[in-house]
Design brief:
The protein is α/β, with parallel strands linked by helices. Helices cover 33% and strands 13% of the residues. Strands 14-11-15-16-17 form a five-stranded parallel β-sheet. A three-stranded antiparallel β-sheet has the order 1-13-12. α2 packs across α18. Bound molecules: 2-acetamido-2-deoxy-beta-D-glucopyranose (2 copies). One 2-acetamido-2-deoxy-beta-D-glucopyranose (NAG) binds next to α13.
Length: 657
């Protein structure tokens, strides 16, 4: 977009209608649409034709939807002892316990200083004592583990403080860059005057957040990414030495300077009245970005840098196996690493055709709400969530009932905003479109979708393929595009109309809590809704390329259900929780018919939903966003200070200002 309003519909359009209709009315409409889709010949007949294996010239990603058993067989044995989720779910408990055991070991300020030195091999930044008080006053569940900040900032040590300041100015002095300047002077926050009116709310949101701690921040200017899409990919070959330089720089000054330089305000060049017209950024909006940006953050010998997959109709086994256990997503952080996944070039809107992409291969300091592996943007907690733009706020009409009382359905509403399909069919590869297709194309009889069924032996399971017709019949989903197709041009508008109509009515955001399972899929950037989903008593299912500031705090299979971007595990995963009973072959009661039954795990689902809710209430509050941001900006203050190599807080409060 042009993110926040001037052109793009996401996120507002996703929930457009927060003001239309009451929940009950919308709910009955959904039922109608659901039935409607089953009996509507036209839309889905067209879908069926479109989604046959297409000649390559015509695009492609869509054919990924038709994995055949042959493709899958090589990735996992058809017979397995024990259900993978009976292993992954308890393991997630242990993983989180281990995380907790090291996230907050310090009990006093001086222990926190020591722990900081142990982790990051340097002293904490000046002002750390104020941060510590701020965090402990707000009962922060996390005091010591801010590794994500450390990772994001490490390479910036390779730039001099002056270079960082100059590059910040380059970004915020030209409005074309879509970067909002935020100035901190004398403990007050101010937005640069040249931010477009439609983006203003974001700067205002940041101002409100910073207001809580700005008195402790040194004078500085910051560049915030106004677009959803991240910006900076420094090629791996250049980035590695920068990271190493960052690691080397650390060390403990003998007599640390404890306050930031006095004349810092002078170090930041004023934003000119006449906009600067030079830009370090290159625009490739609406174009493919994987090979020009995405993959460059990977090692030169990695598959992402070397393999181009032309046969996008087959499942790339080497792309999925590192993060998979059978059909299930086993490791969320490995899944985030794109370097072994060259097929992602054709499987996500960011790589296929982003709505706004103004990027650079040089290390420019820009703060973004989300990024993908390989990008060097600095993550910060989105003002969108901070301002409660999509809030968990159940009402009398839209209550958040107990899990057991909710509808037993996997639910999603959203728009086709992940990327711009400008006429050559790239929508067929986009994650949202693929998942909506998968859960709705009722007449696709290709034996293609995988399910893990119990066998007659105890604790033995077998993978089988079933046509979508069967799966949509056996497992209830309500996954639909709202209102109409956006971000399209040429034939891609009409083709998507055919495939995805009838469209769902706009949704009151609070109507989500009616459903047990809430699907969250990437749009053009960070998810505006995942945090409220976690806060609710429903269980979020999430598939995503983008990662956000909270990524290492939240544990998949404990707080939410992770899904691979390719979607091949969707049905088997849903069946584990939901359970399933019915005929998978033949006509009930007649010869040759096969009946199946999978026992659901609603109590496991409920426990996960409540654990996610509980943890969100401890570690993903607005307080936690402030705590993260405060610490990030103290670190940033030191990095941009000419005296940075001798600055630190050594635990001696009396010496500090
Ligand atoms: C699916 O196919 C059957 C049999 O050809 C047909 O009767 C039905 O109308 C189709 N439904 C849709 C939604 O296309
Ligand atoms: C995921 O894989 C990484 C790298 O192999 C490993 O360090 C991490 O512990 C794994 N995470 C889980 C939840 O198993």
């Amino acid at each position: 977009m042009t993110a926040w309003g001037n052109a793009g519909p996401f996120p507002p359009q996703d929930f457009r209608a927060a003001d239309t209709g009451i929940c009950l009315a919308t709910a009955s409409l959904f039922v109608y649409l659901h039935l409607g889709s089953l009996s509507d010949d036209k839309g889905h007949g067209a879908g069926k034709v479109m989604f046959r294996r297409l000649p390559l010239l015509l695009y492609v990603g869509s054919t990924l939807l038709l994995f055949t058993w042959g493709h899958l067989r090589s990735s996992f044995h058809s017979q397995v002892a024990h259900h993978p989720l009976d292993h992954l779910i308890p393991e997630a408990q242990n993983y989180h316990k281990t995380y907790l055991s090291q996230a907050s070991t310090s009990k006093t300020l001086s222990e926190a200083v020591q722990e900081y030195q142990r982790r990051y091999a340097q002293l904490p930044p000046p002002g750390f004592q104020h941060w510590y008080k701020f965090a402990t006053d707000r009962n922060s569940a996390i005091i010591d583990n801010f590794d994500s900040i450390h990772q994001d900032l490490l390479p910036f040590s390779a730039l001099s403080p002056q270079e960082i300041r100059d590059r910040t100015w380059e970004l915020i002095s030209n409005p074309w860059n879509d970067a909002a300047g935020v100035m901190i002077r004398n403990g007050k926050t101010e937005a640069a005057p040249n931010i477009l009116g439609t983006h203003r709310w974001m700067a205002d949101g940041l101002g409100e957040m910073f207001g809580k701690f700005a008195e402790w921040l040194p004078d500085m200017d910051l560049a915030f990414n106004l677009n959803d899409e991240p910006r900076v990919v420094v090629p791996y070959e250049e980035m590695e030495p920068m990271r190493k330089a960052g690691l080397k720089r650390s060390g403990l000054p003998v007599a640390p300077g404890t306050s930031f330089s006095a004349n810092r305000a002078d170090g930041w060049t004023a934003i000119p009245e006449e906009p600067n017209s030079d830009s370090p950024l290159q625009e490739i909006s609406w174009q493919k970005t994987f090979h020009r940006y995405g993959m460059l953050g990977c090692p030169p010998d990695s598959p992402a840098r070397n393999d181009r997959l032309w046969d996008t109709g087959s499942l790339c086994i080497s792309c999925i196996s590192p993060q998979s256990l059978g059909a299930f997503l086993a490791n969320w952080s490995v899944a985030a690493d794109i370097c072994h996944q060259p097929d992602l070039a054709d499987l996500h809107g960011l790589y296929l055709s982003p709505a706004a992409f103004k990027g650079t291969h040089q290390l420019y300091p820009i703060f973004s709400q989300s990024k993908v592996h390989g990008f060097n943007d600095i993550l910060y907690p989105s003002a969108w969530n901070y301002l409660d733009n999509a809030k968990y706020d159940p009402t009398d009409e839209c209550p958040d009932k107990s899990f057991a009382e909710k509808d037993n359905v996997l639910f999603w509403r959203g728009s086709t905003s992940e990327g711009v399909s400008k006429g050559r069919g790239s929508w067929r590869g986009m994650t949202r479109q693929r998942f909506v297709h998968m859960t709705n194309n009722v007449n696709n009889t290709a034996p293609s979708k995988v399910l893990l069924l119990p066998t007659e032996e105890p604790d033995q399971y077998e993978y089988i393929n079933l046509p979508s017709t069967k799966l949509t019949e056996l497992l209830p989903t309500d996954v639909r595009v709202v209102d109409g197709i956006v971000r399209c041009a040429g034939p891609d508008c009409g083709n998507q109309d055919h495939e995805f109509s009838p469209f769902a009515a706009p949704l009151n955001f609070q109507a989500h809590w009616k459903y047990k399972y809430l699907l969250d899929m990437d749009g053009a950037g960070f998810s505006g809704r995942f945090l409220p989903f976690l806060q609710s008593k429903s269980l979020p299912f999430k598939t995503a390329l983008f990662r956000e500031w909270w990524d290492d705090r939240v544990t998949p299979w404990l707080h939410f259900v992770p899904l691979d971007l390719r979607g091949h595990g969707l049905w088997a995963t849903l069946a584990y929780f939901h359970g399933l009973e019915g005929f998978i072959e033949g006509v009930p009661g007649q010869k040759g018919s096969t009946e199946v039954k999978i026992n659901g795990h609603p109590h496991v689902a409920e426990r996960m939903a409540m654990q996610g809710r509980d943890w969100a209430g401890k570690a993903l509050r607005k307080d936690d966003m402030e705590i993260y941001m405060f610490r990030l900006l103290l670190e940033w203050g030191r990095l941009t200070d000419d005296k940075r190599d001798t600055l630190g807080f050594d635990g001696n409060e009396t010496r500090s200002t």
